[in-house]
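Complex 456.
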Amino acid sequence: MRYPLLPRELGYFLAVESYDVAIIGGGPAGSTAAILLSKAGRRVIVLERDKFPRFHIGESLLPFSMQTFTRLGLQEKLRAGFLEKFGGEIAEAGGEKAAKFYFKDGFGSRTDRSYQVTRSKFDKMLLDHAAESGAEVREETLVENVDFDRDGAMLSLRRDARSRVLGRAEARLSENTRACYVVDASGRNSVIGNKFKLKKSYQHLQKLSLFAHYEGLEREEGIDATLTRMVRTLQSWFWVIPLENDRTSIGVVLEAADFKSSGLSAEEFFERAIAEQPLVRNRIGAGRRVSQVYTAADFSYRSERLAGDRWLLAGDAAGFIDPVFSSGVFLAVLAGEQAADVLHEVLDHPKRARRLFRHYERLVNRAMDVYLRFVESWYGGKEFIEVFLTPTELFQIPPAVNAVLGGNIGNRFAIRWRMELFYLIVRLQRRWTLCPRLSLMPKSDGQTAPLKPASI
Ligand SMILES: Cc1cc2nc3c(=O)[nH]c(=O)nc-3n(C[C@H](O)[C@H](O)[C@H](O)COP(=O)(O)OP(=O)(O)OC[C@H]3O[C@@H](n4cnc5c(N)ncnc54)[C@H](O)[C@@H]3O)c2cc1C
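Predicted structure with flavin-adenine dinucleotide bound:
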């Protein structure tokens, strides 16, 4: 029920439910925050627009999330339901060079593995775990608006209740709920970010992605069967991610303009792009596509602020820095965990809010900065991949790069100076040939006319 014209106190009196924390969105960021706050004895509500399980992209996880998953009590569920992942491989499209990396070799490696997950199943596992931990979880409940006042927030909700008895499409029910604090974990929808116009796009990273699921691909023996494979071309890059139950996720990321100017449908473009890349095509072999071709566009942005008097932004609602290094779920889980810890303390000591919220904002921004720099270097030209694929034991740079690829965004000096050296070599490679040059062009086999190349 909604009481828009009533004084706030009367609204409470008329049975508007009240919580310590309301969480908008039941993805990895929202569920992580909900599990930890509920386990700590806080009254938490999760408001999720969709009915789970639902499709979501973001399937390759980083090992530095494992410690948080252990804290959430998820080890057994992860082991039972998903494919372990031990590292990755990056290859150049010409097929001349490729480099494998294993998480065990990363600087300060805490664990040698993470997981490849079908997100529909993974997200449902997390959300169910939040409910089991004591959170009130409401699916098919859209947060339409949030109004803040001195004591907290009023959230306007809309429930799409399908009336099976009458066979009617849907009935829309509106109601309000109150909370002392709000975690906006609504993903790219960024409910609070949009309300306060905080979202800023990275114009130089406006990419587009097409992806689908496959079955029947041959896999290597042993741990190499678990690796995320990436193929870098001149104008795009591909991922091949093995999932549980014979599924494989395959996707391509490219300049949005290249797809738009092609005049092709998503399906036609995707099939052509794969047909043109022998390394990806050969991996598919006799496998077949078993899902539609999905698209996602304009995905890199950041919110100008990540916290206000009564709110925190977590996960994609705070920002998203390109999928290339699989950092999205790692950053979402990191922010969800930090948000929960901060709010748990602030609920007992409200005077600490400003300081703790500032600390939260700094920490999450710093983590995003690490990946932003990495991503800008990746898209800055061919030099990143030329340096990356040149094996060297010099100053142990590879274990430092490997550590960042695994989610080690800590401030360890040992990693920081080696990363600076790596970026310096990439910059020098732009002027001088320190590492062998690569064309990043597949060897032509005459099977397909190439899509128009553009610069990456
Ligand atoms: C092409 C591509 C590939 C990617 N690959 C990877 C990868 O390999 N590895 C990786 O770690 N990350 C990857 N990502 C990133 C990853 O998908 C996200 O970073 C991650 O899902 C963020 O989690 P989240 O909890 O913040 O948001 P989400 O997972 O998006 O969850 C947000 C939830 O909020 C709900 N919601 C939205 N609006 C409302 C509302 N108004 N009211 C109520 N509920 C609402 C949504 O229904 C959704 O369930 C990829 C992203 C893209 C675009």
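The CA atoms of residues 132 and 310 lie 26 Å apart.
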